[in-house]
Amino acid sequence: MATVATGRAIRRTLLIAVVLAVAALVLPPFINVGRYKGRVIESISNAVGRPVTVDAIELRLLPQPGFYLGNVAVGDDPAYSAEPILHAEEVTAYLRLSSLWRGRLEIARLKLNYPSLNLAERPDASWNLESLLWKASRTPSAPTAAPAESRPRFPYIEATNGRINFKYGLEKSVFSFTEADFTLWSPAENQWLIIL
Fold this sequence. Notes:
With 196 residues, the chain is an alpha+beta fold. It is built from four helices and eight strands, in the order ααβββαββαβββ. Strands 1, 2, 3, 4, 5, 6, 7 and 8 form an eight-stranded mixed β-sheet that branches. Strand 6 (156-168) and strand 7 (171-188) form a beta hairpin. The chain is elongated and about 80 Å long.
């Protein structure tokens, strides 16, 4: 008798798992995530400390909940450049699951495909990336791997097949890195690492 009940429980659990997996694959295109676009943009903007624009947004549920973002631009400090510091046609923003349980929308990881990173230097030898990190240090965000707390955590940002452009004053250099992969994250309080 016990094995029959166990067999039914296993079949019921498998059926529920299959129905949920099919729903996660089929439903996202039919869910209107436009109302969350502002919250997603605000979350990314707060995380990087710069204004962000996004043209399109789609929901994704598997393998980890998040959003597909189209035509994303991260604004630069106007003292360095009028162009965005970062532009990417395709970005996947993975949500931090623990933040959803607390009723917040927090980005855990940003995966950028084919981004363009514009590094600009002023005549005083300061770079816009320094400005970005300085502003991020003033934004109340916790390190990337910190346990859950009231402050949002800085996301793990990874880019593949990117282009890194260099600009000196108003002139763009002919020198650039192509097919570049880079990663940026905050391993500890007021510390950021970038790997090119």
